[in-house]
Amino acid sequence: MQTEEPRGDSEIRQRRVPGETHPLLSSNEDSEKQMAGCCFAQFQAPAQAFLRPGVWLPGVKRLHEYEEEWKISASVDQCMEAFQAAVESLSEAEHLDLRKVSKEKNFIQVFAFTASCNWLDIVEVHFHAGSEPSVTTARARSFSSGFLPACCPLAFFWNVLLFWVPFSGNGFNTKRIKLLRETMQQLSVEVTSKKTCSCVAP
Question: What ranges does the record give for the region Disordered, renumbered to this chain (predicted)?
Fold first, then answer.
């Protein structure tokens, strides 16, 4: 009695055109490449964030920087906790990495990596106690750190040489600040007013 050969990957192999890559293998290879690029970007990100050549020239940085000023009905500590919670809730979908939280300086820094090529954008927020006990003002900005993505070898070095090259942030920085503000409001605190800073093009 003959036993039927199990169908599945063996049948797929027989039907495949010579030289064609198996779709499962192809997706695995793509995932491995993305993971390697992500790890390399994470490794180079601190140097890129420290140098931040993308914002050296005032005229150029306007193309890929966005800044808002918020008035929040909460204490500074409550605002910082709400912002951290917003970052954590969006970290996977928006590729956010909480890097610095300074309660002494009332400052938070976040690394944001674009999904496609791991360009490094940086979010920085400074919180200040208002004239009233339960009111805080905050200045939040997001900007692109350099012309080349952080997954490129020695990206921070090449971006220093290319600091003069104008490039667009493709609206990511604007979207990111607005999304963080809206998420903060949904989670816990009320942003009673906001305005786009005049020094930055929307």
Answer: 1-28
Tell me: pLDDT of 150 over 70: yes
Q: Which architecture characterizes domain 23-196 according to CATH?
A: 2-Layer Sandwich (3.30)
Name 146's Cβ contacts closer than 8 Å, sequence gap at least 6.
48, 51, 52, 53, 54, 119, 120, 155, 156, 159, 162, 163
* Domain layout of the chain by residue ranges: 23-196
Q: How far, in Å, CA of 151 to CA of 115, rounded?
A: 11
Neighbours of 161 (CB within 10 A): 11
pLDDT at 32: 46
Cα distance between residue 90 and residue 98, in whole Å: 11
Residue 193 has pLDDT above 80, yes or no: no
Tell me if 173 sits within 8 A of 65, measured CB to CB. yes
- Structure tokens given for 162: 């290319």
Global confidence as pTM? 0.78
